[in-house]
Amino acid sequence: PVPFCLSLVRAGELLYGEGEVPPTRGWVSPTYGVKEPALSLAVEARSADSVQFITEFIFPPP
Known about the structure:
0% of the residues lie in helices and 35% in strands. It is an all-beta fold and 62 residues long.
């Protein structure tokens, strides 16, 4: 297993994880001049070997 760090950010604020958060992380701009909060999930890992990430989101039915 490769050690990794997981962080969750919204509107530049760290909700989960550790470390510095750039102020631009956790925002989305749907059009010029408009900035809205958004969730930003990041996984960071280092390895001398190749690494494969598989992401699967399962949402409950509405």
